[in-house]
Amino acid sequence: MEWGTLLWFSVVPCVVWALVIRIIRAALREHWGVAKVNDDVDMRGRIAVVTGAGSGIGSETVIGLANRGATVVVTGRTLKAAKKAIIRLRHRTFLGDLVPMKLELSSLESVTQFCDAMKIRFERLDILVNNAGVLMPVNKRMKSVEGFEIHFAVNHLGHFLLTNLLMPLLKKTESRIIVITSLNHRGSINFEDLNYEKTKITDFSMAGNVLYKQSKLANILFVQELRRRLASSGCSNVKALACCPGVVKTKISRNLDLPWFADFVRPFVDFLFKTPAQGAQTPLLCCLSNDMLDANCILYRHCKPWCPGDRSFPDDYLISNVSTYNYSKEDAQKLWTDSERFLIRVLLTKWRGTIDRHNEINAKGKNVIITGATSGIGQAVVMEMADRDANVILACRDITKAKATVTHIRNRTSRGQLIVMELDLASLESVRKFAREFKNKYEKLDILVNNAGLMISPDKRLKTKDGFEMHFGVNHLGHFLLTNLLLDPLKNAAPSRVVTLSSMAHSWGAVNINDLMSEKTAPKDHFMVSGLYSNSKLGNALFNKELGKRLTGTGVHSYSLCPGMVFTNIGKNLNVPFILHLFRPLFWYLLRSPTEGAATVLYCALSKNVAHQTGQMYYNCKFWDPSTRIELTDKAASELWTASAKLVGMK
């Protein structure tokens, strides 16, 4: 083949392809409505906040506002990240000031701190652009600092709190709130399970990401309800708008597990995507324009009003072949109420004590035994361990309930292995049988969580199958024997951990070595908390102390903890006065959820921070020293160990 012919067949197709791309892009530009914003708008003296300003649409929005003279607060997940973003942006901005500030939307505490800093530094706020967003693989099920599903937390809840806390500054001037949503808002709000803790997800594709879809629909419903509340309060100077920037080439999908051929295909389809500068045109229109905004429309796309499927708006605004979802006022109001409820729970959690969820820790391949795994904290720990790919043994008295728990967890996650084994801590024979079966099946045990416990009304005196007082027999002696029988597989897996749940009630307890079953002296009860229960929880703490001492140098570490006041069914056997049932909804707010209660369990079981500690006690994911209690002495721990070993028949 001659060089001329070769050149013809290689160059001409490229030229034709380039012309086709230019024609398509020109048509798309007309459709997208690019360059609609008037460059002559003067923003000098105005204050703006843009979240997610480090790249993409956020960066271009900052540039558009700053080049018109505005002072723009550039937020970043860290102050260092915000400063780096400003260094990049300075090459393209010449008028307005750029102010770096830290804002981590996955932490409601960070949002609160940011708003406090804003109120100190500025007297007003003209524009708030809620742009930041995340798109994560559905199967990873990531959570925020406070334990909310990450899409809902960052894309909606963080901005919900941010907007409400900055409202006093926004009300001082003619201001605008711009919320960036997405074409992918075409889903529904799972009001029964907003955090997707119980709902099973089967579609893990990017297009089928129900978590992202829910958060983006929440953006629109938030704006709708915000507008209604502003109008009903007589506030006409604050305008709230939602905008869909279109399909834009940004970094939002960088965390997704894309197919192998994505990088190969991308150069051939990039021209179909808007650039970040083009994607920022609609947000800038909503920020700056007065002429093109419509008072009746909350949602904008391609620099014009877009009201898909909302029957509350005039028919002229309906666009066919778009989402037919009805943005009902009822859904918007319910979402607002639920969002407030979540925030109240977070504030109460801070009042109850801070926790650290340790989302980043993986337990893949670890063998984990959890007693009392069918409800409450135990079930929450099972779910968290399964999410971390552990092999979890549910050691339970009721096999039927255990299997129902497995079904419940499998509706949420397919990760990890869930194995049901029978264990009745009220029977030493059952404990020995469980230990034998486990050791026949497994050589190693990485984590043992002694969680099971019971609390019976003070007026009842029940006994175990071996004749022990029920609280002491189940809460202490059963776990004492179980742990000792499993020491060999624990040592084989070293470094391994034994985590024993105690309680705040241990501070009311007393261990009388000469009367461990409290047959001679009746322990003092506190309200509905039996003194027998308090004694058994003190026994847990003393057991942990002595166990840590005896296992020093073996690679097996022992931890005891108080999970805090948790809303579980441990009090189901109490004779609760009828009037207290009326306050049950209040308890739901005041007490920790089982997931929150499980945080310190996970900390002791997985955190590297305590990897070299043993025999200590923990509360709120940190070391806790209850040494002021005379009962927590080495002597008391040693005496209880000796007496317990004799009772369970250990040599």
Automatic annotation (TrEMBL):
Lineage: Eukaryota, Metazoa, Ecdysozoa, Arthropoda, Hexapoda
The organism's place on the tree of life at top rank: Eukaryota
Keyword set, alphabetical order: Membrane, Oxidoreductase, Transmembrane, Transmembrane helix
Family matches, as Pfam families: adh_short
SUPFAM superfamilies per the UniProt record, alphabetical: NAD(P)-binding Rossmann-fold domains (SSF51735)
Name of protein: Retinol dehydrogenase 12
GO molecular function: oxidoreductase activity
Record has Oxidoreductase as a keyword: yes
Sequence intervals crossing the membrane: 6-24
Annotated coiled-coil segments of the chain: none
